[in-house]
Amino acid sequence: MKKLIAAALVAAAITPLHAAENWVASWQASPHAAWSEQEFVLPTGVPAVLERQTVREMVRISVGGRHARVVLSNRYGTQPLVIGEARIARAEPAAAQAHGVVLTFGGQRSVTIPPGAPMVSDAIAMPVEALEKLAVSIYLPQRTPLTTFHWGAQQTGAIADGNLTGEAMPANAQALHGRALLSGIWVNTATPASAVVAFGDSITDGNGSTPDMDRRWSDYLAARLAKKGIAVVNAGISGARLLGDRMGVNAAARFEQDVLSQPGVSTAIVLMGINDIGWPQSIFAPDEAPMTADRMIGAYRQLIVQARARKIRIIGATMPPFEGTPIEGYYTPAKDALRQQVNRWIKESREFDAVADIDALLRDPANPARMRPHYDSGDHLHPGDAGYAAMAAELAGYINQ
């Protein structure tokens, strides 16, 4: 009898979709490969291995819909990844996280994700509202190396022993400041919707914003556009580069999966390149040769041609100033000159469909090599909440209505 009841509950959560389907990406965290603590100066911030544990991750979606799907990722895994059970629930009030809907995959509660693959859940009968906060809980019954993760979540999750997908997390649960498995949430909207993908590095990933408050520039932009039925998803990876690999692969290598293949994508905003300039001969890449403008321009052109081939509008954003950053070797006057040279090309070449001059927005008029103090998070590289809000206000004017 218990098995019959459980089967009925699972079946009730899966909605056959006979009407028109309007799937659009409503939330995203780009996966990338974990590194060993010995091969890179930054810690991963997530456990190397999970086993018989539940991971609960918090998200705030952009647009709402009648049904939802959850996307998990094993993109950089070298072995199959077994999901014992997964649920999605409303995150607020906190007690709601102990309930929610069981996710199924081809009608099954448990699924194995092949190496290198994503896994998209069945559509679930859980209407979600624009800007709603959700909790996704995943139980891993077997020893699971976290080879695929996302470094900077700006939202705090939790890890606890046992299968707690349908229960409250204990007070002593381990805090999770990155992301372990969750890479996307799609929604089925009542009318066709479109998505804007923010493609960038730590400035897009939201470093310097207040954690757990949804104050990245993509969050502010989502709040502005949700009422118009336009989704905003974040494909930023801290440390990402146009041409280098480490904290995520190079831009062209992930552009297809993280941008072009997102359901409903109509516009991409590219704000990337500062790490290509700053990393060489810094503590992050002490032996790398200095970057050149020609190499960076060639990388931008590859993104432009790929977007145009898919009829996706691509907006270029100039790189903001970064003098004063305490990262050893990251800033030099020569590197700033290169930033300004590339910014001139972004603005004057007319190769992007539109250009948002984020440099002009954020720089200090009294010292153009530095960020305005009001917009600076304090590290002189990343904006703070006020800076991200200003960026969203600026970028909103470039989104087609």
Automatic annotation (TrEMBL):
<dbReference type="Pfam" id="PF13472">
    <property type="entry name" value="Lipase_GDSL_2"/>
</dbReference>
<dbReference type="InterPro" id="IPR013830">
    <property type="entry name" value="SGNH_hydro"/>
</dbReference>
<dbReference type="InterPro" id="IPR053140">
    <property type="entry name" value="GDSL_Rv0518-like"/>
</dbReference>
<dbReference type="InterPro" id="IPR036514">
    <property type="entry name" value="SGNH_hydro_sf"/>
</dbReference>
<dbReference type="GO" id="GO:0016788">
    <property type="term" value="F:hydrolase activity, acting on ester bonds"/>
</dbReference>
<keyword id="KW-0732">Signal</keyword>
<protein>
    <submittedName>
        <fullName>Lysophospholipase L1</fullName>
    </submittedName>
</protein>
<feature type="signal peptide">
    <location>
        <begin position="1"/>
        <end position="19"/>
    </location>
</feature>
<feature type="domain" description="SGNH hydrolase-type esterase">
    <location>
        <begin position="198"/>
        <end position="390"/>
    </location>
</feature>
